[in-house]
Amino acid sequence: MDQDTCLKHHFLVAMPHMSDPWFAHSVCYICDHDEHGAMGLVINKPINMSLTDIFAELNMSFAEQADIQLRQGGPVSQEQGFILYQGDFDEAQNIPIAPNVKLSTSKEFLQCLADNKGPENFIPCLGYAGWEAGQLEAELANNGWLTVPADETLLFHTPVMDIAQAAARKLGIDINLLSQDAGHA
């Protein structure tokens, strides 16, 4: 897969006709994409659970109230936590995605957050979205997603409910004006 077709560090914005309940109205940040498939995190669907709940469930002591709301990362491994973060925080295992964006699944990283020693900007998710080889490309060919180059401002500093519109606006599109019908020219 060449650099032009790789969607790592891109947003997928669900088109209005997306009927899958997991992905309808979603924005997915792609963490990895190669000839074997793709992996991403839905970043605009908050769930009724906070980091405080996770710390309590794992019997972790925490420095202060961590009322940061978790997001529904996707339908795969919903019991698994993923933390997307900004910056150079090397206290725990991480996977680099972009020069200033990394991903962690380590319990040590979670403890750093509990101790209020983690990065300032992060997004906690439960579960992830995964595509087998060729599956994402087929969804793109069927106009299931808009692809938008990611940026850290949109990722870490945009209110959750505004992410889809802000991402589409980067392409000059008002997502509210898109048709429910898909077609090919």
Q: Mean of the pLDDT scores? A: 88
What is the strand content? Answer: 25-35%
Spans with pLDDT under 50 lasting ≥5 residues?
Answer: none
CA-based shape = globular
Distance between the termini: 25 Å
Helix content: 10-25%
Beta strand count? 10
Q: Report the C-alpha radius of gyration, rounded.
A: 17 Å
The topology string of helices and strands comes to EEEEHEEEEHEHEHH
Structural class determined from secondary elements: alpha+beta
Largest sheet: 10 strands, mixed
Number of helices: 5
Q: Which descriptors apply to this entry?
A:
185 residues, single chain, 5 helices, alpha+beta
Give an account of the 3D structure.
The longest helix has 8 residues, at 107-114. This protein has 185 residues and is an alpha+beta fold. The protein contains 5 helices and 10 strands, in the order ββββαββββαβαβαα. β7 and β8 form a beta hairpin.
Question: Could you provide a short overview of the structure?
Answer:
The chain has 185 residues and is α+β, with helices and mostly antiparallel strands.
